[in-house]
Design a protein that fits this description.
Low-confidence stretches: none
Order of helices and strands: EEEEEEEEEHEEEEEEEEEEEEEEEEEE
Largest sheet: 10 strands, antiparallel
Helix content: under 10%
Strand content: over 45%
Number of domains: 1
Mean pLDDT: 96
CATH class: Mainly Beta
Shape: globular
Number of helices: 1
Structural class: mainly beta
Radius of gyration: 19 Å
CATH architecture: Distorted Sandwich
CATH topology: Beta-galactosidase, Chain A, domain 5
Length: 304
């Protein structure tokens, strides 16, 4: 467990070898070049949520009964998988880019019977952090997995402002269709809901009103949305997350009035309450034949 740093002319980012997790992002003053105090990534205060931006692998969300079946064998699995709690190896570090590596071993095989290597990469490009995933299958069989992001962003950002003055911004939509998670079992409920957005030019805005997450995460599926911005009271974005995933989540801890929100691009999700099948039958599950690899990325832009 060690901290690693990347910086360029605009950003300073801090990472942890545990979970290959992004811990901190701060901007540099455009005139002096000095590091500013404002923190964009959630602090990890355990009073609300003791993490910052964990990597979710080999599952996203909760599996039914906290277990799953593969080829007739039942395996235990914790929420969001195990990668976020494992020690990664810092494989390479360049001026603006870093790669972390996690390989399967005896402990992982007790709950996930595949030979794999998981690579997590970060690259600083001006005011943006690009996050890279690479999953490699070294098993002698087809491998099934999910992978996703869970970054928490400070909200409110500006001292003296209120979270309910902030909003999510979506391009080119007037309403948001979503489903929710049953907080008792962590599974996706069948019903879907819709919220109208405040339309301004080509964007739709969703205010972070109190109670928005009282029923836990909002799950948005097959929406064709590939960008979510977090905006201040003046509707100016300070974080823009861009992705190409089949679904994503929006979350803050239910009933805690926590001073952060999460924007979570996912390749996979929790089981639905109705699901009753094997690993290969899960919705949004990814698969790799022996020797194949899976490569994806998403970005986070940090604005003044």
């Amino acid at each position: 467990m060690a901290k690693v740093y990347l910086e360029n002319a605009q950003l300073m980012a801090t990472f942890d070898t545990k979970g290959a997790e992004l811990l901190s992002v701060k901007r540099k003053n455009r005139i002096s070049g000095e590091l500013e105090e404002q923190e964009y990534i959630w602090s990890g205060d355990p009073k609300y949520w003791g993490r910052h931006a964990p990597i979710l692998f080999p599952f996203v969300g909760t599996q039914k009964g906290k277990q799953y079946q593969h080829k007739g064998i039942t395996y235990p699995m914790t929420q969001h998988g195990f990668a976020r709690d494992k020690e990664f190896v810092m494989q390479t570090k360049e001026k603006n880019r870093i790669w972390f590596k996690l390989s399967s071993y005896e402990e992982t095989k007790k709950c996930y019977p595949f030979e794999f290597i998981l690579w997590i990469g970060y690259e600083l490009e001006e005011d943006t952090i690009q996050v890279f995933y690479r999953v490699e299958n070294y098993s002698k069989e087809k491998m099934y997995f999910a992978i996703g992001a869970h970054p928490g962003f400070t909200c409110p950002l500006v001292e003296g402002t209120l979270q309910e003055e902030y909003s999510f911004r979506f391009p080119h939509i007037n309403a948001l269709t979503y489903s929710i998670v049953n907080m008792e079992n962590g599974l996706k409920q069948e019903n879907t809901y819709q919220m109208d957005l405040v339309k301004k030019e080509e964007y739709g805005y969703l205010k972070l009103e109190k109670g928005l997450f009282d029923r836990d995460a909002l799950i948005i599926e097959q929406s064709r949305i590939n960008e979510v911005a977090l905006c201040k009271a003046d509707n100016k974005p300070y974080v823009i997350v861009k992705f190409d995933t089949p679904l994503f989540g929006l979350w803050s801890p239910a009933g805690k009035n926590a001073p952060f929100v999460c924007i979570e691009p996912w390749y996979g999700r929790c089981d639905s309450e109705e699901f009753d099948g094997e690993l290969s039958e899960k919705e949004y599950i990814n698969e790799l034949d022996m020797g194949e690899s899976f490569e994806r990325s998403y970005s986070m832009q940090f604005l003044p």
